Amino acid sequence: MSHSRWKTLRQRKLAEGLTEPEDVAEARREIRLSMALAKAVYDRRAELGLTQTELADRAGLSQAKISRIEGSDTVPTLPLLAKLATALDATLNIALDDNDTRVTFTAHHTDAA
Questions:
Q1: Please, are residues 74 and 89 in contact by the beta-carbon 8 Å criterion?
Q2: For residue 9, what are the domain limits?
Q3: Is 113 part of a structural domain of the chain?
Q4: Can you give the pTM of this predicted structure?
């Protein structure tokens, strides 16, 4: 079954009043948060024109670790998030709500072109 067909089927079932098991809903929330962080790290790294290796060097991490973060394959600790924010010369902002997760990096300085 294709992803779009599965998604349509899921939406139809939810519209009919069927609910997901709580563990499935929780897993979906965790994935959304991980993906939001991955996108924020990638976007800020790209904005700075850094490679994964350069970001890893700045943060004192391995390139593989940066790849796992950007691939949503890991759940970073708070100290690791602090290292990333420092390496990206930005403040990490995380807004968590029931159905809305926003993760952004706000630059400390105007990036000179």
A1: no
A2: 3-107
A3: no
A4: 0.75
